[in-house]
Amino acid sequence: MSRQRYSEEFKIEAVKQVTERGHPVTEMAARLGVSGYSLYQWMKRYAKPAEQRQQDADLQAENRRLKAELKRVSEERDILHSTGQCNSG
What distance in Å separates the CA atoms of residue 70 and residue 88, rounded to the nearest whole number? Predict the structure, then answer.
């Protein structure tokens, strides 16, 4: 059985039903045919304003980029050390 994919708009509207209109999570999850766990996950992601979500996404992307750069530089350093091409002060 394949998992149902929901649009971002659907998720945001589901979260609004809970956060702005005060509907219980379990009730909304049942009405929408999703698990309570999924709705709670959506709330963690979409309860923030769009601007804050974008800032968070940008920070996560920068963090991934920096980790990849650190890995590359560390590998280059290890190669230089293993070949004896690095001056060790």
Answer: 20
List the structure tokens of 7. Answer: 């649009």
| pTM score | 0.55
Where exactly are the structural domains of the chain? 1-47, 49-83
Q: Is 3 exposed, middle or buried (0-12, 13-18, 19+ CB in 10 A)?
A: exposed
List Cβ neighbours of 53 (8 Å cut-off, separation of 6 or more): 45, 46
Contact between 75 and 82 under an 8 Å Cβ cutoff? The reply is no
Nearest-5° angle of CA 33, CA 37, CA 38?
60
Report the CATH architecture of 1-47.
Orthogonal Bundle (1.10)
pLDDT tens column, 57-87: 899 999 999 999 999 999 999 999 998 876 6
